[in-house]
Amino acid sequence: MNEQTIFVDMDFFRNGLIQLTETMSEEELDRIPQGFNNNPRWNIGHALVTTDYLVTNAVGESSQLPAHYPHLFARGTSPQDWEGKTVPTKDELLEQLKANHQSLQQLIQGKLDQSIPFEMFHLKTVEDVVKFSTSHETLHSGIAKTQNQIQS
């Protein structure tokens, strides 16, 4: 797949996550529907943190996000543990979603064929990581959308 196609896919799915976030209120972002362990804000933040972590590590760079984000949104975290912690507002999440997207595309430009310095599933190249991350981001976008629809 060529770089332009990868970037178009990244744009499409990140813009969908941004648009979903824009449609929700702070209260909707924070509600945990019955049967779920987390809320839309967590799913959106988790998608952001995971994509950033995987892609930056794939090219040997440092995270582009505020240092406290993984403590809130990494795998195994929960909004139920957020009491007393600084959780990003909707506007802050939107700002990070937009800025991170642009910086990640700059980081990977011309590097899609590069081998990655870690082992994970079947992933071998930066392109593999980007495709996996985009799929993961889309999964959590869908969960956040479903959670919001359940609440409405």
Automatic annotation (TrEMBL):
Pfam families: DinB_2. Gene3D superfamilies: dinb family like domain (1.20.120.450). Residues 14-143 form the DinB-like domain. InterPro entries: DinB-like, DinB/YfiT-like. It comes from the Bacteria. This is DinB-like domain-containing protein. It comes from Alkalibacillus flavidus.
